[in-house]
Amino acid sequence: MKKQNMNRDWIATAATLSSALPYLQRYDGAIVVIKLGGHAMGSDEAMESFARDIVLMQQVGLNPVIVHGGGPMINAMLKKLDIQSEFVNGKRVTDAATVEVVEMVLSGVVNKRIVQAINAQGGTAVGLSGKDAHLMTCDQTDASLGFVGTPVDMNPKLLHDLFANDVIPVIAPLGAGRNGETFNVNGDTAAGAIAAALKADRLLLLTDVSGVKNADGEVVTELKTGKIREMTAEGTIAGGMIPKTETALDAINGGVRAVVILDGRAPNACLLELFTEHGAGSLIRPD
Ligand SMILES: Nc1ncnc2c1ncn2[C@@H]1O[C@H](COP(=O)(O)OP(=O)(O)O)[C@@H](O)[C@H]1O
Ligand SMILES: CC(=O)N[C@@H](CCC(=O)OP(=O)(O)O)C(=O)O
């Protein structure tokens, strides 16, 4: 009996692999930018599972790029150092002392945790920030926010070189200013700018909700850009979802083929989205 069940499990696994073929063919060589938010970065087991999915993507011929956040980890370190911090419209007001902590945390432990997790699964990941190889040059977003940057000049050449060598880039959302400043960039904004610079096939924004919800609290599985504007105007899209949907619109205007907002804490979220008919989360496409 036990053996029969086991056989059935293997048959189901083989059928699942077989059903993935059209998706594997569709995404062969595709560039997929994955933004991993701080809230979506869970336990060591969840990180291991995420890293495994990324290595699998690369193994089957995609070019994954990870752009990460780490807001909660920055908050924890600022608290330890007794530095106060506040957000205005989803962006952290960032003075000189704060930007040092942001860089230390994001380019340090957060970036290296992801790099190490991918490498432990047999991939080859390299950690960068937008400062490396002229990847992301920024202007100040607004003087009242201090060292918060808006990406204005992107150079993705290094990323193409890494793809050619089967290396997975893991990018912290910091940018260089034209006068030697370090700018703190919202993780969603950085991921959108990088996806647009790469003309990525997909931008996956991994967060802590299962997608964009309508006024009844149900996830809307497919959204056109006009509908997002409507839902934002009526206040259904609010708070932390605003920078995500704005990023989605900017990325699509910048040449990204589609953006998906999905729950990064769900097991195998990226694989489910890319390689099954079912998909996951909210798919945002041009009108
Ligand atoms: N229409 C909506 N659908 C889903 N989530 C929404 C919506 N409007 C606001 N939100 C909020 O946006 C949050 C996601 O943004 P945020 O917390 O900034 O994520 P992250 O830390 O992953 O970048 C959700 O947890 C939810 O509270
Ligand atoms: C300007 C700004 O707000 N930068 C963010 C960067 C990290 C981030 O975006 O992290 P999550 O994706 O986890 O929210 C910050 O300082 O928190």
Would you give an account of this structure?
Residues 31-262 form the Aspartate/glutamate/uridylate kinase domain. With 287 residues, the chain is of the alpha/beta class. It has a single domain, classed as Acetylglutamate kinase-like (Carbamate kinase, 3-Layer(aba) Sandwich), CATH 3.40.1160. Helix content is 43%, strand content 22%. It is built from 10 helices and 14 strands. It has helices at residues 2-19, 21-26, 44-59, 71-80, 96-120, 157-164, 187-198, 225-233, 241-253, 269-275; strands at residues 31-36, 63-68, 87-88, 91-92, 125-129, 136-140, 149-154, 168-172, 174-177, 182-184, 202-207, 222-224, 258-263, 282-285. An 8-stranded mixed sheet has the order 5-8-2-1-11-13-14-12, with helices on both faces. The longest helix has 25 residues, at 96-120. The chain is globular and about 65 Å long. The termini are far apart. Bound molecules: adenosine-5'-diphosphate (ADP) and N-acetyl-L-glutamyl 5-phosphate. The site of adenosine-5'-diphosphate has 17 residues, from loops.
Biggest sheet statistics: 8 strands, mixed
Listing every helix as H and every strand as E from the N terminus to the C terminus, the arrangement reads HHEHEHEEHEEEHEEEHEEHHEHE
- CATH architectural grouping: 3-Layer(aba) Sandwich
Could you state the CATH homologous superfamily? Acetylglutamate kinase-like
Strand content: 15-25%
Site (Transition state stabilizer): 35, 244
Pfam family, one: AA_kinase
Enzyme class: transferase
Keywords: Amino-acid biosynthesis, Arginine biosynthesis, ATP-binding, Cytoplasm, Kinase, Nucleotide-binding, Transferase
